[in-house]
Amino acid sequence: MIKRTRVQEWSKGVLLMGRFEWFGTGCWLLTHNGVGAILELPPYSPDHQESPATKAYNVCKKRKIDVKYILCTHTHIDHYNAKTAREMQGAFPRAEVHLQRGFEGIAGMLNNVYFFDHDSKLDIGGEPLYLVHAPKHSWTDTNVIFKGTAIMGDWELNTLRSAHDDKPRYAVPKDAKIAAIDKMSRFEHDHKYHIHKVFSVHANDRRENIDFTALMHDTKVDRASF
Ligand SMILES: [Zn+2]
Description:
Layout: E1 8-11, E2 14-20, E3 25-32, E4 35-39, H1 52-62, E5 66-71, H2 82-91, E6 96-100, H3 104-107, E7 113-116, E8 119-124, E9 127-133, E10 142-146, E11 149-151, H4 174-191, E12 197-199, E13 206-208, H5 212-218
Parallel strand pairs: 4-5, 5-6, 6-7, 11-12
Antiparallel strand pairs: 1-2, 2-3, 3-4, 8-9, 9-10, 10-11, 12-13
Helix pairs in contact: 1-2, 4-5
The site of zinc ion has 6 residues, from loops.
């Protein structure tokens, strides 16, 4: 039986449309003034799950949202799936796909795709949406900042450590991680922007009323557990 999930509005204009596969990667809709962006392209099990693209199509049709962008936080297999990406483009053929340069090898076949190296600032119905390249969990880590919320991909918070530190193929060296955390800790100051919520893209970490810059400083501490 195909399981349908209920849309949850985690914050105004930040909607969790569903969590997919056993690892529960979220697929999100970021929206303002009838315009939207889809965040994350996870794999799914067609035998018991609705596809993220079908879900997104139905949610946006019902809410009359014009999807302008398709986005993804990093290249790991639980976040970017080529089949889901193609289906998402099929659902929203006019949407631009904006991805960090490190996606080029796996996403180069998509239409309407734009790669950025460091950061990108997009516009959703007059509201800015920032894509910030900040490698910590993986080399393509892209933090998404919209309406005072930061969706931090798979970033491990309150520790410098990362889940893949012991895997040379995936690990981000300490210096690069520190540079990424420093960049995030300057974000509020540099952009004169207040971030007060932090969500993980898997929707298993939800923090509200936070001091984002202080959280970033604390993330530089080398703690054993996270
Ligand atoms: Zn993940």
